[in-house]
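Researcher: Here's a chain I'd like modeled. Treat it as a single chain, no partners, no ligands.
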Amino acid sequence: MNALPQDKLITALDHARLLGMITRPASAAALSRDAIDATQEILDSAPIITLEDVTPDIVTMRSRMRLLTANGDEMIVTLCYPADANLAQGQVSVLSPLGLSLIGSRQGQRITWTAPNQTEHAATIEEIVYQPEAAGDTTA
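Model: Modeled as a single isolated chain. Structure tokens:
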């Protein structure tokens, strides 16, 4: 089970970009129905905030964070767009189960997700190491 959408806040820019990814025929064709449905649920439920209202504790696109898994392992991941995903380099697609649990969540929050093999996972967002909005980088 993924984090509940009401636990999330999403920027207007991230909202627009995610909506485009799941509604554009070319990009949506490469997505699973589950990914589209989960993304749509977040977009329908999460409050939308302006870039000016983003606080440094919210996970936004291109945020880099340190996660502590339920079994005590530490992971450093960056939330990215699907084309840039590379799990070996810590680049997690926003449309993956982990990515969807991260977007809009807050530092200190416990997130849960179900992997494609149906394995349940949990982690706590221990630290947001880099958030574009906090760094003044709102160009990409």
